Amino acid sequence: MPDHLCYSSRCPRKVTDNDRSDMGRKRQIPDINWRMNALLENVPRGDTDIAEVTNLERAVRDCVRLDPEHREAATLTTDHAVQVKGVSSTTFTGEAIAALAEHLPPTQSVEE
Fold first, then answer.
1. Are 50 and 97 members of one domain?
2. Per-10-residue mean pLDDT for the chain, 112 residues long?
3. Is residue 16 included in any domain, yes or no?
4. Checking DSSP bridges between strand 75-84 and strand 52-55, what pairing results, if any?
5. Residue 100 has what pLDDT?
6. Helix (H, G, I), strand (E, B), or coil: what is residue 46?
7. What pLDDT does residue 38 have?
8. Which of 4, 17, 58, 71 pairs with 107 at a CA distance of 20 to 30 A?
């Protein structure tokens, strides 16, 4: 039996309605790897703005805690593309970071 989904009526593995609903769900909610490396820039650390490399979850949580001015200036860069609201990117600022924050897991997956 083939290991793919086929829409042909002659294929021994026909696509069912359950397959279609599963496929649509996977396209709408891609998994985000919250443990991947992320570079957080333009964020004040003491008297200077020093870039920090951390995991994506911590970077997003740190960003949402910032005051509005610094939150808007922050830049977050990931190792791999992340898809949010149908757009795939490796660099996030302002509203894009806020969109990422909407998908944060309920508790931190990695210790700080």
1. yes
2. 44 50 49 95 79 93 92 94 92 94 79 51
3. yes
4. unpaired
5. 94
6. coil
7. 97
8. 71
Domain that holds residue 47: 37-101
72 lies in the same domain as 91: yes
Angstrom distance (rounded) from CA 112 to CA 99: 22
C-alpha 59/C-alpha 29 separation (Å) is 21
Number of domains in the chain: 2
Percentages helix, strand, coil for the chain (3-state, rounded to 5) are 30, 30, 40
Encoded tokens for 94: 């302002």
Q: Residue 112: inside a domain, yes or no? A: no
Ramachandran angles phi, psi of 60, nearest 5°: -65, -45
What is the distance between the alpha carbons of residues 98 and 93, in angstroms, rounded to a whole number? Answer: 8
In a domain, 106, yes or no: no
Q: Which residues contact 56 (CB under 8 A, 6 or more apart)?
A: 32, 33, 34, 35, 36, 37, 38, 76, 78, 82, 100
Q: Say yes or no: 25 and 45 in one domain.
A: no
- Give the model's pLDDT for residue 30: 63
Q: Of 34, 36, 54, give the one whose Cα is nearest residue 45.
A: 54
Q: Which pTM does this prediction carry?
A: 0.67
